[in-house]
Amino acid sequence: MKTAETLKRIEELTHQYLDELNPLSIEQLKLQSNENEWSLGQLYLHLIKTALYMQIGNIEKCRSQSADAVDPVGEKTEAGAAVFALGGFPPERIRVPASPQYTPEQPASKQQIIDGMHAVLQKMKEIEPLLEGISPRCTSLHPRLGALNAKEWFALIEMHYRHHLLQLERLKAFLNSTETV
Questions:
Q1: Distance of alpha carbon 136 from alpha carbon 75, whole angstroms
Q2: Which of 1, 39, 74, 106 gives 20 to 30 Å between its CA and that of 99?
Q3: pTM of the prediction?
Q4: Where are the alpha helices (DSSP H) in the chain?
Q5: Exposed, middle or buried, 106 (CB in 10 Å: 0-12/13-18/19+)?
Q6: What is the 3-state secondary structure (H, E, C) of 10-34?
Q7: pLDDT tens across 91-108, in order?
Q8: Mind listing the pLDDT tens digit for each residue in 130-179?
């Protein structure tokens, strides 16, 4: 997928996530089925923080490298090659043990989520025209997928948003089941 297409798709996904957010109260956004499951608000903050700090942060790392002075940081892992060959993550849950570094906090407000989603989209609009000028030799390591270049990190944001649509549906179904009780 070309970067302009990726940007168009992330805009669509952002609007989809914001439309899903619109009717929800902050109480609904904080509701968890149990202590091991995230709330909808935590899902949104996970998407925002992962995009801003991990994915966009790694695009900036790639951008700051000089293609001439680059020592390869490694290769894509088998999982990384599979994700990019597939064009997304497989439709299965990825479970990571709860931890302060990984488990998102509950949102402080609905506006925090709205502002965060817009911030990610704005950063992507700023970055997209710069991607062509970043050498594909400039890479940064993803803990599971291996060495990714700036365009791959950019595409990963869209893939990550798309992957979490399954969780969004699951959490909405839980929310709907609590309202009928």
A1: 12
A2: 74
A3: 0.92
A4: 3-21, 26-30, 40-49, 56-64, 78-86, 110-127, 150-163, 165-179
A5: middle
A6: HHHHHHHHHHHHCCCCHHHHHCCCC
A7: 877 776 666 667 899 999
A8: 999 999 989 999 999 999 999 999 999 999 999 999 999 999 999 888 87
